[in-house]
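Readers of this paper often ask what the protein records in our data store actually look like. The remainder of this section carries one protein's record, kept here as part of the documentation.

:::
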Amino acid sequence: MDRHEQQQQPPSADTAQSFLRVFEPLSRTLENPVALGFLGLAAFFIIRSIIVSYSKGPERFSMKSVQQASVPAQRDFTPRELAAFDGKDEGTALYIAVKGVVYDVSKSRGFYGPGGAYANFSGRDASRGLAVSSFGTEVLKDLDEPVDTLDDLDQTEVDSLDEWAGFFAGKYVPVGRLVNPAEPAASASASESKKDA
C-alpha cells in the first residue's frame, strides 16, 4: 500500500471516527459509577416532570380560593328541596351539595345518577361522606334535620373534604347554597315582624 492510499480512507470511516470522538466523553462518563448515578437521577427527574405535567388534571384549588370566590347563589336549597334533584327522573337536573355549595353534576350522570358509584349523594349534602371516604347512606343526615356542621371531623377529614370541594368548584357549576330548613317558630315570628313593620 502506498502512502496515498493510507491517507485516503473511505468517507464512511471518517464519519465513524468523528462520531466516536464526539461521544468519547460520554463513554468515559458511563464508565464512572458516580457520574452514571447522577445521570440516572437527572434523567429520572426530567422524565417524571414531563409525565406529571402532561398527566396533571385540573389545577387544584385551595379551600381559601373556594371560600373567597363569589358563588352565584341563584337559589337557596333546604335539604328536602335539594332531594328533588336526585337524578331519578331523567328530565331533572342532578345536584349535590359540598360544604354548603350546591353544584349541578348533571354532566356526570354516570357517576352520580342512579346506579352510579356516588348515587347515594345525589340530591343530598355529600360533605360528610366525602370527608370520611364513605359512600353509604349512614353518612347522610335526615332531610328535615339542620345542615351538618361537620364540627366533629378530624384534620385529615377536613383536608380531604377541602380537596373534594376544590374538585367540585373546578369541575361543576355552582347553582346555589344549602341552607337549614326554616324552623316553624322562627318563620312565623319573622313573618309577624314584617307585618308589624
Q: What stands out?
A: The radius of gyration is 32 Å. The beta strands are 76-77, 95-98, 101-104, 173-178.
